[in-house]
Structures are given as structure tokens and as C-alpha cells.
Specification:
55% of the residues lie in helices and 8% in strands. With 485 residues, it is α/β, with parallel strands linked by helices. A 7-stranded mixed sheet has the order 3-2-1-4-5-6-7, sandwiched between helices. A two-stranded antiparallel ribbon has the order 8-9. Strands 10-11 form a two-stranded antiparallel sheet. The structure holds 6-phosphogluconic acid (6PG). The site of 6-phosphogluconic acid has 12 residues, from α8 and α12.
Length: 485
């Protein structure tokens, strides 16, 4: 360990990390463990000292107290990774750093920043000759330490100076780093946002599957843990399915009950799921799985309203009988098919965002780096990578031959699960809306024609005809003849 409060340390640092809460500390340690000299900075020096006291032997660190000292400790071009809570604090930290930096230096924001903030920050810093890289980092505390998935945006030039270091500390799958340059300005934070949206949908679907097995079959959490463990040995293999088994198997030491039964059933959210849905609304991309997941969390949190609604009539109707083994397999199929829909929608949003902002995000490259390190890592991502390799212009992931086959094979099971839940009054917003999306996608004539007719009736908004081009209006309050407009 090089531990210095002055700037006289012989070796300069290749990277500086400011913001040494758990994620920042772990990523700093990850850099050091990979042989990089790391300058450390935190607003209160206590955290810096704690890190050095506990982990200073893991590599070469340079201890700094002030921003000028921190900046001085870095080799040129300077690379500074900011790991502070997204929001206003980020602008203040950036400003303080930028004031002390030189043209060509690189500031990396590794927090979950809103991509429009990243676009704004990148433009402002570019004017001052500084490179700003909004980098999505996924994998939680453990990933930050042992290899996260990293999604850096920003100028391609900055990736040349930064990419090899990020690739070295990222997770590796089959020798390929889970890090690639996503595209210019806010693209890295945009794809991280959608990653989190997909994470919401994935978790909601898992939660619905759990609720179905528990309510319909009367399985105990420990039994459902076994089901998830089994599923994790097949196509559903993923980090979230794996840890679902862990959480469901956990017993509360105090009460002896399954932990899941003593946790309050209100899901919180920090905001990335909500951002994903807001952006999807602006882009006009239906991300129904993510939307339902965000709303389901909101409903779970409406505790007073839910308490007041207890006792509302369920109005259940007789459900077709279920066989335990067959039902478990149906739920597995419904989960897989719904998951395909959630990813298809998320990738649609990424492609729409990429078009809107001119980012040229490569969906295949993204699927490749999401195979490891990140929260949504899954065997399934290999299939997505292959799908985009076979056809980079795939109109929808659902239409890739492999996914199409899987969804078509699952669709009857999916309907049985939705029916089973609906008859019994079990809420399954993500399963049901994913199935409806699938039906909407494949339906040849949608009732949108009627909506167009209504819009034309009350607002003369016009419609297109199926038999010739142009825009038309019916004179609804006149003689009801049609005019071309
Ligand atoms: C990740 C996670 C990480 C964070 C979530 C939690 O990729 O490592 O997504 O970013 O744990 O943002 O989000 P919520 O608090 O909104 O569930």
C-alpha cells in the first residue's frame, strides 16, 4: 500500500475513486486487486481511512484528503470515477473536480444517473475540453468487488483511455469482458436504466410465480425454494432465480417462520424503474412488463388504501382443476414466456432510444455484456446474443426462431396459468399483461381502427384507409360522406 497524505508519492494513480460508500470502496478495491494504482478520496476522510485500514493490503492505494490533492495524485490523462448517490450531489462533485482538471482528463459517473442529466453534463464538460463518461455499473456490492457489468457511454476517444481498465475489472464470461463502449453521451446510463427496468419485470414475474405456487398449490416457501432451485438448473438459470431460492429458504431466527412471511409486503423503489417507464412513454414503446412491475410496487406500497380495501368481494369462479406437477411446469413455462416478452420490450426501448439520440447501440453487444456481472445475468442472455448475431435487424426478439419456438411452445401453459389465477382472484399483472402483449402483437386486425374512427368523429383527427393511401375524414355532423384531407 502506498499511503500518503501529500502528493509526493512516487507512483501516480491510474484511476481515482471519489465516494467511498460500499459500492465505491468495492470498486476501488477491485481496481487495486487488478494491479492498478488507485487514488482514494471521500468527503469525510474517515471512510478513506477505514478502507485503508481494512483492505489497504489488497493493492496500491494513494490516500488523499482534498480534491486538489486527489487530482494531483493522478497520472495524465486523469481518470476519476465518481461513486456518489445520483442526483444533485453529482453536479457539485463534478464541478469541484472539473475546476481542478485539465483538458483531456476523464470524469466517470458510475452512479445510476438519469441519462438526460448525463447528456447535459457531457455537453457542458466537452465545452471545457473534459471527457465525461456516464457508466452504468451493475452487480451490487459483490459485483463491484469481484466483477460487475459495466456500460460506459461518452466519447469513443475516452473509451480508448479507459476501456482496457474497465474491461479488466469487469466480470468475464467465456473470456469476454462484461464491458463495452455503449455509445456517445448518455447511452451508457440509458441502457443501465433499461437494465434496471428489466430487473423490475424479472422480479415481478418471479414474485407472481411464487404467489401462484403458494396460493394455488399451497406450497410452503421452502418447497417453492426447491422448485426455483430446480428451475435454475434449466433454461431459467439466472442470478435472480438462484437468489429467489435463497431468500425463500431463509428462516427468521426470531420467529422460526419463513423470512418471506415476516417481511412487510411493500416493495420500495429508488427510481430507475419509473424512469424506464417514463422514457418508454416518451418514445412510444410498450414496455408493459416493466410498467406493470413498477405499478405493482406502487400498489404494494399503498398500505392505507389496501387496508381499507380488505373485505372487497373476490367473486372467484370455479377454476379448472390443477395437477401439482403439471401446474408447476405451466408456471415455469409462463415465467419463461413472460420473461421473453419483458426482454423483447426492453430491447425495443433500447433500439428506440438509440434511434432517437443517434447512439447506434448494438443490441448483440449489450446482450453479450449482460451475460455476467449484472443483476439480470442469465443463461438466456446467450440466446439473445445469438439472436442478434443471426439477425442484427430483428424486428422483435419474439420473432427470433429460438424465442419464437419457446414462446409458441409455452403459450397454452401461459393461458392456463392466467386463467387459474384469474378464476381464483390472484393478482398477476405481469403474467397477464405479457400474454396480452403477445396476443396484441400477433393479432392481425386490432380494434385500433375503431379508436381512429372515434377520434375522427369527435376531433376530425382523420384516419388512413386499408385500400388506398392518404388521410381521410368522414363528415360526421354533415352528410357523412368521406373527404380526403
Ligand atoms: C444493479 C442494481 C442496482 C440497484 C437497483 C435497485 O444493477 O446493480 O439494479 O442498480 O440495486 O437500482 O433498485 P430499486 O431500489 O429501485 O429496486
Amino acid at each position: 500500500m502506498t499511503s500518503s497524505t501529500s502528493n509526493t508519492s512516487a507512483a501516480k494513480a491510474q484511476i481515482g475513486v471519489t465516494g467511498l460508500a460500499v459500492m465505491g470502496s468495492n470498486i476501488a478495491r477491485n481496481f487495486a486487486r487488478n494491479g492498478f494504482v488507485v487514488a482514494l478520496h471521500n468527503r469525510s476522510v474517515g471512510r478513506t481511512d477505514a478502507l485503508l485500514a481494512e483492505h489497504g493490503g489488497e493493492g496500491e492505494f494513494i490516500r488523499t484528503e482534498t480534491v486538489p490533492e486527489f487530482i494531483e495524485a493522478l497520472e495524465s490523462p486523469r481518470r476519476v470515477l465518481i461513486m456518489v448517490k445520483a442526483g444533485e450531489a453529482t453536479d457539485a462533485v463534478i464541478e469541484e473536480l472539473a475546476a481542478a482538471m485539465d483538458p483531456g482528463d476523464i470524469i466517470i459517473d458510475g452512479g445510476n444517473a438519469l441519462y438526460t442529466d448525463t447528456i447535459r453534463r457531457e455537453a457542458a464538460l466537452a465545452k471545457r475540453g473534459l471527457h465525461f463518461v456516464g457508466a452504468g455499473i451493475s452487480g451490487g456490492e459483490e459485483g463491484a468487488l469481484n466483477g460487475p457489468a459495466i456500460m460506459p457511454g461518452g466519447p469513443a476517444e475516452s473509451y480508448r483511455a479507459l476501456g482496457p481498465m474497465l474491461e479488466k475489472i469487469s466480470a468475464q464470461v467465456d473470456g469476454t469482458p462484461c464491458c463495452t463502449h455503449i455509445g456517445p453521451d448518455g447511452s451508457g446510463h440509458f441502457v443501465k436504466m433499461v437494465h434496471n427496468g428489466i430487473e423490475y419485470a424479472d422480479m415481478q414475474l418471479i414474485a407472481e410465480a411464487y404467489q401462484l405456487l403458494r396460493t394455488v398449490l399451497g406450497l410452503e416457501p421452502a418447497e417453492i425454494a426447491d422448485v426455483f432451485r430446480e428451475w435454475n438448473a434449466g433454461d431459467l438459470e439466472s442470478y435472480l432465480v438462484e437468489i429467489t431460492a435463497e431468500v425463500l429458504a431463509q428462516v427468521d431466527a426470531e420467529t422460526g417462520k419463513p423470512l418471506v412471511d415476516v417481511i412487510v409486503d411493500s416493495a420500495e423503489q429508488k427510481g430507475t424503474g419509473r424512469w424506464t417507464v417514463k422514457s418508454a412513454l416518451d418514445l412510444g414503446v410498450p414496455v408493459t412488463g416493466i410498467g406493470e412491475a413498477v405499478f405493482a410496487r406502487a400498489l404494494s406500497g399503498a398500505r392505507d388504501q389496501r387496508a381499507a380495501a380488505q373485505g372487497l368481494v373476490a367473486g372467484t369462479i370455479e377454476a379448472p382443476p390443477v395437477d401439482r406437477t403439471a401446474f408447476i411446469e405451466d408456471v415455469r413455462s409462463a415465467l419463461y414466456a413472460s420473461k421473453v416478452i419483458a426482454y423483447a420490450q426492453g430491447f425495443d426501448q433500447i433500439s428506440a432510444g438509440s434511434d432517437e439520440y443517434g447512439w447506434d447501440v448494438q443490441p448483440g453487444a449489450l446482450a453479450t455484456i449482460w451475460r455476467g456481472g449484472c443483476i439480470i445475468r442469465a443463461r438466456f442472455l446467450d440466446r439473445i446474443k445469438d439472436a442478434y448475431a443471426a439477425d442484427p435487424d430483428l424486428p422483435s426478439l419474439v420473432l427470433d426462431p429460438y424465442f419464437r419456438g419457446e414462446v409458441e411452445r409455452s403459450v397454452e401453459a401461459w393461458r392456463r396459468v392466467v386463467v387459474a389465477a384469474t378464476c381464483r382472484g390472484i393478482p398477476i399483472p405481469a403474467f397477464a399483461s405479457s400474454l396480452s402483449y403477445y396476443d396484441g402483437l400477433r393479432t392481425e386486425r386490432l380494434p385500433a381502427a375503431l379508436i381512429q374512427g372515434l377520434r375522427d368523429y369527435f376531433g376530425a383527427h382523420t384516419y388512413e384507409r386499408v385500400d388506398r393511401s392518404g388521410h381521410f375524414h368522414t363528415l360526421w355532423s354533415g352528410d357523412r360522406t368521406e373527404v380526403e384531407v
